[in-house]
Design goal:
The protein is mainly α. It is 81% helix and 0% strand. The longest helix is centred in the C-terminal third of the chain and has 40 residues.
C-alpha cells in the first residue's frame, strides 16, 4: 500500500453506512410515511390475493423504485439545505427534478398496481378467465 492510498473498508462497514443512510432518509422526510403506507397496503393485498411470482416481482420492483426515488430526492434535499443562498438560487430546479422523479416512479407504480391487482380482482370475480 502506497502512502497516498486509503485502506479498503470492509463490506460490513459499507453495509452499515448504507443502512444508516436509509434510516436518515426515512426519518428526515415525512413523505416516507405515505410511501410506506401504500407499500404495506400493496404487499398486504398481494398476499391476500395470492399473486403469482411475476406479479410479486412487478409489485416489489415498483415499491423498490418508489423508495429508491424518494431516497435520492431526500439526499438532494439534504445537500440543498446545506448550501449558501447564492448556490440555492442557481440549482433550485434540481429539487423540482428530483421531486418529479418521485412523481414518475409513483405514477408508474400506481399504473402497474392497477394492472396487476385489477387483473387479479377480475379473475376472482369471474370476469376474466384464469
Amino acid at each position: 500500500m502506497t502512502p497516498t492510498t486509503k485502506p479498503r473498508r470492509p463490506w460490513r462497514d459499507k453495509f452499515r453506512e448504507a443502512a444508516r443512510g436509509v434510516k436518515l432518509g426515512v426519518r428526515g422526510h415525512s413523505s416516507f410515511s405515505v410511501h410506506f403506507f401504500f407499500a404495506a397496503l400493496a404487499l398486504a393485498a398481494a398476499a391476500v390475493l395470492q399473486l403469482d411470482a411475476w406479479e410479486w416481482c412487478a409489485v416489489l420492483l415498483c415499491v423498490g423504485g418508489v423508495v429508491t426515488a424518494e431516497l435520492v430526492n431526500s439526499a438532494i434535499e439534504t445537500l440543498f439545505h446545506g448550501l449558501d443562498e447564492d448556490s440555492k438560487t442557481r440549482i433550485a430546479g434540481c429539487l423540482d427534478i428530483a421531486a418529479g422523479a418521485v412523481l414518475v416512479a409513483g405514477l408508474t407504480a400506481a399504473t402497474v398496481g392497477t394492472v396487476v391487482f385489477g387483473r387479479k380482482l377480475l379473475i376472482l370475480c369471474h370476469k376474466l378467465p384464469a
